[in-house]
Amino acid sequence: MFGLGKSNDVTLTMDRPYAESLLDKGVQDVIGKPLSRVDGPRKVSGTATYAAEYQLANMAYGVLVSATIGKGKVVSIDVEAAKAFPGVIDVVVDFDTFALVSQQGGETAAPAQGVKGVEYFGQIIAIVVGETFEAARDAAEQIPVVYERETGVFDFSLEHQHEKKLPDNNTPAHSSQGDLDTAMREAAFTVDVIYTTPSQNSVAMEPHASIATWDDGALTVYGAYQMPTSDAQQLAKALGLSASKVRIISRFIGGGFGSKLGIAPESVAAALAAKKLGRPVKAVMLRHQVFEATVRRSNTSQRMRLAASANGTITGIGHETTASNLAEQDYFEPAGLSTHFLYAGENRLITHDLVRVNWLLSGSMRAPGEAVGLMGLEGAIDELAEKVGIDPIELRRRNEPPRDPEKKVPFSSRHLIEALDTGAEMFGWSKRQKPGQRREGEWLLGMGVAAAARANILMETSAKVAIGKDGSVTVSSAMTDIGTGSYTILSQVAAELLGVPMDRITMKLGDTNDVPAAGSGGSWGACSSGSAIYLACESLRGKLANALGVDAAALTLKDAQAIGDNRSVPIAELVGEGMEAVGTIKPGKQTKAVNQATYGAHFAEVAVNLVTGETRVRRMLGVFAAGRILNEKTARSQCLGGMAFGIGAALTEDMIHDSRTGQLVIRDLAEYYVPVNADVPQLQVVFLSERDIHANPIHAKGIGEVGICGAGAAIANAIFNASGIRVRDFPITLDKLLPHLPAF
Amino acid sequence: MRTFTYDQADSPAAAVKSVAPPRAKFIAGGTNLIDLMKLQVETPDRLVDISRLALTDIEDMDNGGLRIDALVPNSDLAADPRVIERYEVLSRALLAGASGQLRNKATTGGNLMQRTRCYYFTNTASPCNKREPGSGCGAIGGVNRILAILGTSDKCIATHPGDMPVAMRALDATIATLKADGTRRRVSIHDFYSLPDQTPEIETVLEHDELITHVELPPPPNGARQQYRKVRDRASYAFALVSVAGVVTVENGKITTAALAFGGLAPMPWRNTAMEQGLIGQAPSDALFEKAAEHLLAEARGQGANDFKIPLARRTLIACLRDLTGE
Ligand SMILES: Cc1cc2nc3c(=O)[nH]c(=O)nc-3n(C[C@H](O)[C@H](O)[C@H](O)COP(=O)(O)OP(=O)(O)OC[C@H]3O[C@@H](n4cnc5c(N)ncnc54)[C@H](O)[C@@H]3O)c2cc1C
Ligand code: SF4
Questions:
Q1: For domain B225-325, is the CATH number 3.40.630.30?
Q2: A130, burial (CB in 10 Å: exposed 0-12, middle 13-18, buried 19+)
């Protein structure tokens, strides 16, 4: 009999490098393979159930009420008038408990609550519940609300910069080393420019949605959440419950891109309404509410300063970012995150400050920090190369730091120069000409390059792996799959380590009743959950070896057989009634002992229309080194998606607020321009072979975000190469090029 | 969306009767109307569904022209071989609009009648003279990068966002209608749209109970070259910042006919016949094209964020004229 129970559970804290990974010894031969998503058939056949699709008995439909002023107070909401609408059951107004904003990802506290004061246009102030969605929507859109208006700050101006020193988030708010001003004065070449990026929306296909149902004081929410474990804690705190009373089920998520890291206002509203009515309530945000009342990536103003010697050796780097947020919200867009370590240079100044505005919350959107920070940094590097008169790849080579230039610790693994060189070769970089030289009919052609970097994160996460008495394997965890492929790659890890075919693995994700996990965000999901599964499997391998009577090192698991000592026995015969183990990975000293990041290189070729200034991307190549690639297909898809994000960031995406009212004027998918098929040309993705022994037992690094980091800068740099026009204000729409275009 | 009653009309005559109540509306493909109803920008209390009427033919006319029924989907019209051959500008304009899915649903009549994409029109929290006469214009002094530079008034600066109607204006289309009293009329597209002036809520000369039954295109000028050029913020699925529909004939080195219509510039598909007259009889040259552009834009007025449309229209027009008259 082999034990169920705690004795099999293992925890590993990454205090030391993990030199040898069992994944390199597996013989099942599934790890790394470009397998299609295991949940694909369910998705295309409509049987993958998303949050809003659960049909609960006696469910009522909630539609949120949005404030229609930018700043002020709600004086009254005419509940009776709304209740008079046919089909309306009730209007739930709870000014104190409703969430003022979404919560940031990973926090365990409640989001800011209290909605009587209106801090931004579109703030959720009530929920109308009806027997049908249509009835609730009709009333929610017409419910009479009386406001008292106040003057707010509706435009972003550096004059409004807040004095307060911000608390550090994933990068220090302020840091400096040496003396940048002196370095700038003494440099042979300098760049001192300001890059600006606009607010952006994640625009996940699936809107934020929660179905809340109560049973004997315990709440279950079917919701679209990236991090159910901490989201349940947030929701519990918001409702004054103990965390054990809140269960979140989030099996399929139609994209999150950061906007579903923390709970959004609809969750609290649905829970309160379900409680009041004594029946399940579904609340799905309308598309404009997703734009107006979830989170945005902050706009930024980035002052970039570079100082270099005559041969292009960087002596100083300054990256001073001002982002924006609501008055009491201290999250800042960490645009300088990678600037700390991407290039050498003794004198460094990296700061982050905020302008307080009455716009919706700003928070994490895919690759918070680098996604916009590299648009500034990599643009400035391109400008420096132009001034020094050397190839921008050569400039990067000359400034490749041997170790972290600030913390003076080694890099865990870093193949930036290899990525640049490989890409240059494949892309035909040597054919790049001086700015404004290549022309094809009406089109000016150019190439651009940018480095990609994204800090690598490991988060405390658990996973339970159980082998049933029939030899089938079940993995369960409160981890999520936000469309990225977690179901697939995590199955591959378990299949490889336990030597079972993929179809013997059942992956149960997205339920807080299972062991806790950090969920999906910050590109940590695959590594954190993959490592937790690894640890559980390693423990089970030990038990199986025992059962077979061999050393763990002498055990081979393949095709559901345990092989060792010249014997081959079905795994099912070794597990008795079944065995299970919980693996838990925790970040440890390796986080500080080495600098961990994923690197890559982006290449873009663009065409700028000489007549109209329209920019069309012709082709792009991304070369990435992200440790072990767990599945070439899903990894590639992540990078493709990231590069498409980069196209949007460079050329089209822009959440525009009316500076008179604070109203978000662009608030649906017809007007918020994400790249469509015709904007996304042939994209090529190449992975360099790499292992990172400092990162985690599976030797992989995050890949969900690196595809966007630097992609937009490569496009902007290509626009400069094509046209000779340097636009530092994103998105680069045609009106910004037009005044500088030559006669044609 | 407000509640409404729904009536499926089984003949044009029944449709125009059914739409009599003041807040009734026709619905065809629904691709514009339903979006606006969801936002409570349009609040009809009765929908008369005309989508199943037998108005889906495209027929040759005796004069060599083409008759297009009001319910012909945009996709079908764009793909019709006669349209491709004789009215290339129309096919291209249609294909430059919206997306494949939308074009499958969108109809000829509905496309002519689509409403502006002005951000303030579609948000009931904003003042808008078009949506709520007398409430003011949110776009003037607001976010108006996409809005009009020609034909505006101090009450409204919206654009007509369509592509198909721009091509139809260059092709001198005629719009045929049926009214509840059984009368039919034919209105030139040049007289069909109204400028905002003091009444931006009035967009066309169509009466409340008047149904567009079909559109007639006269034969295109012999030997004319046709082009539709649409300038936009992304490669597809974006409304025109500026578009030009051109039908131009050159004979013996001289321009003999010129029809040029513009989208994205004005509250209606724009045409300036005086400018066209200036081209006729002349030998094509950049100087001539510059003069035409000057003529077109003489009265253009930007609002700041849309000032760029003036040079953009100038450059686009010149490029089109070069293409239309070049070797
Ligand atoms: C995301 C998006 C992008 C788009 N992009 C473009 C674009 O790039 N270019 C472009 O040109 N268009 C674009 N469109 C608009 C599209 O072309 C219109 O929505 C469509 O043509 C409307 O046709 P419909 O049949 O669906 O009209 P409906 O929505 O059914 O009706 C629209 C209006 O016309 C009236 N109406 C309909 N038929 C008749 C009739 N026979 N007689 C009298 N009145 C009638 C209706 O009462 C209603 O007021 C886009 C639309 C969307 C949603
Ligand atoms: S421009 Fe016209 S449509 Fe837009 S807000 Fe003003 S009045 Fe309304």
A1: no
A2: buried
pLDDT of A529 over the 50 cut = yes
**Nearest-CA distance B79 → chain A (Å):** 20
Report the b/e string of A375-413 with b at 16+ CB within 10 A.
bbbbbbbbbbbbbbeebbbebbebbebeebbbeeeebbb
Whether residue A587 is preceded by a cis peptide bond, meaning omega within 30 degrees of 0, is: no
A702/A710 Cα distance (integer angstroms): 16
Q: Which amino acid is at A336?
A: G
The set of residues, in sequence order, having a beta carbon less than 8 Å from that of A367 and lying 6+ positions away, is A454, A523, A642, A705, A706, A708, A709
User: How many contacts (CB atoms, under 8 Å) link A and B?
Assistant: 90
What CATH number is given to the structural domain containing A684? 3.30.365.10
Q: What is the DSSP letter of A1?
A: -
Cα(B61) to ligand 1 centroid in Å equals 26
Tell me the chain B residues in contact with residue A660 when contact means C-beta distances shorter than 8 Å. 141-142
Contact A469, A621 (CB under 8 A): no
- Cα(A67) to ligand 2 centroid in Å equals 22
- Report the separation in Å between the CA atom of B71 and the middle of ligand 2, taken as the mean of its atom positions: 29
* Mean pLDDT value across chain B: 97
- Print the domain residue range for A471: 2-30+459-587
**Do A448 and A570 fall within a single domain?**
no
Assess if residue A167 is contained within a domain: no
Find the mean pLDDT for residues A54-61.
98
- What total number of domains does chain A contain? 3
> A257 and A244, same structural domain?
yes
Residue B179, exposed/middle/buried by CB under 10 A (0-12, 13-18, 19+)?
Answer: middle
If we measure between CA atoms, which residue out of B111, B113, B125, B106 comes closest to residue B25? B113
Q: How many CA atoms lie within 13 A of B70 on its CB side?
A: 24
| Cα–Cα distance for residue pair B60/A116, rounded to 1 Å | 64
Is A609 found in the same domain as A472? no
Query: Can you tell me the ipTM of this complex?
Result: 0.97
B93 min Cα distance to partner chain A (Å) = 17
The separation between CA A614 and the C-alpha centre of its own chain, rounded to angstroms, equals 29
Q: Is the pLDDT of residue A579 over 70?
A: yes
Same domain, A451 and A483: no
Please say if A148 is a catalytic residue.
Answer: no
Of A270, A293, A316, the last residue of a domain is A293
Query: Domain spans of chain B?
Result: 225-325
Q: What is the pLDDT of residue A4?
A: 43
Same domain, A325 and A426: yes
Residues A555 and A465 in one domain: yes
Write a three-state SS string for A47-98: CCCCHHHCCCCCCEEEEEEECCCCCEEEEEECHHHHHCCCCEEEEECCCCCC
Q: Measured from the CB, is residue B110 less than 6 Å from ligand 1?
A: yes
Q: Same structural domain for residues A613 and A543?
A: no
B159 in ligand 1 pocket by Cβ < 6 Å?
Answer: no
User: In the listed set A232, A259, A293, which residue is the last one of a domain according to the structure?
Assistant: A293
**Do A84 and A211 fall into the same domain?**
yes
pLDDT digits (tens, 9 = 90+) for A116-155: 999 999 999 999 999 999 999 999 999 999 999 999 999 9
Mean pLDDT of A200-224: 97
pLDDT digits (tens, 9 = 90+) for B168-211: 999 999 999 999 999 999 999 999 999 999 999 999 999 999 99
pLDDT, tens digit, 9 for 90 and up, residues B225-257: 999 999 999 999 999 999 999 999 999 999 999
